[in-house]
Amino acid sequence: MSDLEGWGGSDCAVFEEMLAGFEAGDLKEAASELVRRHVDSCASCAGKLAALSESAEKERAAWDEAVEPSPAEAQPNRLATRGPSRDRPWVLKPIPLLIAGLVLAAGAAGVRFLAAGPTTNVVASLTGVGDEEARAHGFTLARPMDLRVYAVGEGMSGEMYDYAWIVDASTGSPVWTMKFGDTQHAGGADKNRMVDHLISLEPGSYIVYYKTDGSHSYEEWNSAKPSNPEHWGVTVLTMDSGDRTAIERYDPEADPAIVAQLIRVNDDQHLRQPFTLERRTEMRVYAIGEGMGNEMYDYAWIENARTRRTIWKMTYGETGHAGGAEKNRMVEGILRLPAGSYVLHYQSDDSHSYDSWNASPPVNPFNYGVTLRRTGR
To answer: Among residues 48, 54, 209, 245, which is most buried (max CB within 10 A)?
Structure first.
């Protein structure tokens, strides 16, 4: 059924909603014909269509000037329909693009999504996020893939407060983070920031996260909202709808490689998780905690369940900066344990922990705590 099949009225408001898709050439043939007939008989809508076409032409000219294509690449709208190629760096500028039925139109107020058909290329959509909310979505890639990350959030003075990031599920380490320096104005208040990135990922499992602070979010704006408020959050898309066959959902709670995990640790907690190894096992340890002056205040350790002897402890000297405040510390390394029974511990003090930060949180706040994962060796 076409977009307007069965509709016989002439209300301009209906057709105005279709003008952007008509100008971009993205409407189905039947709908496009109905819009064409209406524009031919309506001076008002014809004028609006002309303005849209003029604006789009200026945007294409600005894009051509920004990327300075070689003579061999100078083909009209090459990137407007195919997206960035592997040999061309992604330029953070508002540009018109069409990707598998999703049109993004750009203007002075920033970038906004326009519905233009089924978005079959969406890998993850964490949008419409409210105050003090945190969301996550895991996915597994069967082969190397370029993914497009579109995120809208809040940031000021070089720091992001509502933002997205993606981690490698096998290590817990971030592979991409929404940084203020990579963002541009998203319309409305200046603190509304957006980023539109192309990232290349190897086969494996990943988790995309989005978190907000306690003010200025979807439907809870304390100043002018962005041009595309419904996309406050993050959307990950493939560059080709055919790539979806090489992507599966990833559930970390069902991941057999995770031996033990104590994460999202709050203030004044001492968490414990016993685990047993049937044979000598090599594991990757990923832990985030709080430390200052060569001393750890939120930290992990492992003890032998039979002898109660500590066989590994997270010390300040082995940690590195985990992003955010300098006291956010993280450690990532390989630990080999013989067969036996063990207990994983995590201890936090009375301040600065998951959802109770008294300074800037680490880049990967969801994993505040410790994770033990088999390496497969």
So the answer is: 209
